[in-house]
Amino acid sequence: MKSHPPYTMCFRVKFYPHEPLKIKEELTRYLLYLQMKRDIFHGRLLCSFSDAAYLGACIVQAELGDYDPDAHPENYISEFEIFPKQSQKLERKIVEIHKNELRGQSPAVAEFNLLLKAHTLETYGVDPHPCKDSTGTTTFLGFTAAGFVVFQGNKRIHLIKWPDVYKLKFEGKTFYVIGTQKEKKAVLAFHTSTPAACKHLWKCGVENQAFYKYAKSSQIKTVSSSKIFFKGSRFRYSGKVAKEVVEASSKIQREPPEVHR
Length: 261
Prior knowledge:
Residues 1-216 form the FERM domain. By secondary structure, the chain is an alpha+beta fold.
């Protein structure tokens, strides 16, 4: 570590749950909610104006509770840093929803409703990796519970679901995704800034594919970045897969942990 003690450790979600509804404990939902708040603030969760207003209102309801005209002055929303660019028009819409639609919701319910909306958005769980496609156009690659995604600007141009992804590999600064699109074989190539960035992208893809695609961790094998097994990089995901995590969490029988907001 480059810094000196005391160290600050920050919690981050690595694999986003495909269905937040299946999260059993409130504490786990709260931790995911905190991650979503961070994603929203850093502009990683792209959404429409109406969805942004609803998400913002859920955050305000979770933080402040019901709207109270005596406690909440006209510009009370401006005190919240919810979005990287927060217009007055958006703040007025957030106030409207907070006043009229969310009254009576506890923090846990408001947080849960935010998760239900957020997980339906295309950039939910996407950690964007910048690169260029074969034409030199800047694109962002990501891996979600659904599969491999490609964005140009705010538009998703590719989604290859995990069952249709056959292989992920890299050579130097070029990352390849080999799979099926519209019942035809597809080979997508993307160029990263450095070989190290390309290798990191490949490892992220291999981890996400293993976590979301397989039913059991025992099915996971070591993968190679090259056709020749003893050349290139090798990597094997270690840990439970999504289905095992959901199954294990459904069997939790302890007293629910207390949530300190």
